[in-house]
Design brief:
The chain has 13 helices and 27 strands. By secondary structure, it is of the alpha+beta class. It has 2 domains: about 220 residues, Pnp Oxidase, Chain A (Roll), CATH 2.30.110; about 120 residues, 3-Layer(aba) Sandwich (UbiD C-terminal domain-like), CATH 3.40.1670.10. The strands form 7 sheets. Strands 7, 8, 9, 10, 11, 12, 13, 16 and 21 form a 9-stranded antiparallel sheet that branches. The termini are far apart.
Length: about 475
Amino acid sequence: MPKDLRSFLSEYEKKHPEEIVHIEKEIGWDQEVTVIAQKFEKQEKYPILIFHNVRTCNGEKSPFPLITNLLASRNRCAEVTGSTFKMVGRDYYRKTREQRKPFTKISKGEAPVKQVIKKGKDINLWEFPAIRHHYMDPGPYFTAGYFTTMHPTTGIDNCGLHRGWMVEKNIVRFYLTPHTHSRYTMNYHRDRNEPMRIAYWVGHHPAACLGGQVKLGYPESHYAAMGGLLEESLRVVPSESLGEDFLVPADAEVIVEGIIKDYTEYPEGPLGEYTGYIGPQIPNPQFEVTAITHRKDAYWHDILVGRVDNFVMGGFALEGGVYEAVRQRVPSCVAAYLPLSGICRMHVYLQLEKPRRGDAKEAIMAAIPVDFRLKHVFVFDTDIDIFNDKEAMFALASRTQWDKDVMIFTGTRVAECDPTAPDEGVMTKGGIDCTKPAEESFSELNKTDDDVFNKIKLEDFIPQKKLEGIPKERM
């Protein structure tokens, strides 16, 4: 059986029933789902949330369940991709780059996503439980919809998460940031005044969703990279209204097809963005929906933009890419991590083993250009657990002299949604060498002998009930 969202949910709920929460009570589309997830976040809990009774933007009950927080857990994403908490970024990179699998084309009659086909007057985006996440969002958005295009000369597929506002039942205004391949493809068509075919696919196995975000060359197939993470070929099927050569994921939950007929720009946004801040209203084009296909009992997948669900899932492609880029130039690099505190985009922690003089600074210079969203690079020794923010900040406090250890780079590429982004389109980034002076003596960390630490167990000295009753404290 091919992997899809429902096969994942069935297997995962049997294995981890405590990590999937079904909510039967009616809930509204306007910010209420965000608050549920937000309150779980404050408890440092990240379950998959499935809402079975959502009132949509038009006031009607959606016939489709809403699933969110699917990718909010790093441990869950590691399990989905056959990896571990610390290795998931590197394994992600390896599987999407080195173990890609060519897609398999199947007939329309075999494709679950073709169970229901809607065209013309039957098209109604507002029947899906697309929600309003934050108080300034203008309406329901595609947030887990993968904006899919075909390269104009090679026909190679490209996928990316690009926001789309459902301004009408059949009209979507969308935003493609300047450095994305989707934008390059749109510019090609716009410069020639040609219409452009696009599709959003929504809902699939989590490994497919993660693979749809990999940073590839232009053009390279996301479908093949998704197959690498799935560990099987992605099944695809011809579109319903965009031609036999426009292929879409056959095992998705929903496909929304459309055509950009002209490139007139309209007000779009503001929108709560992945940065955790409200992004501005931007003049953007729109497309007309030409067909919707979906499973009879389709799930509508939503990503909680600017929340942990959004942060975690988007970090692995960058994390693996940074590690490989730095490792090629600085062999002492043994790990890379994009911490949640830097929204898994803006900060990267690098770990070097027995670095030589100059290694830390060269690692910083190698990491900064990997992605325009990266802003700050911090380099640590192996006696610091880079997956623990407290230890990282301890090293920053105790091992740096900023007149010697700080590097600053002006005039670098900028992410438009960054709230600090200046109007001129470039910004300043930097890095800090938080390693001990290479090849010099340095004070040793306070520690206990390993044999003593491993021998002592709290439950041997304190009753289990008492241990469980001691409250946690965040400091």
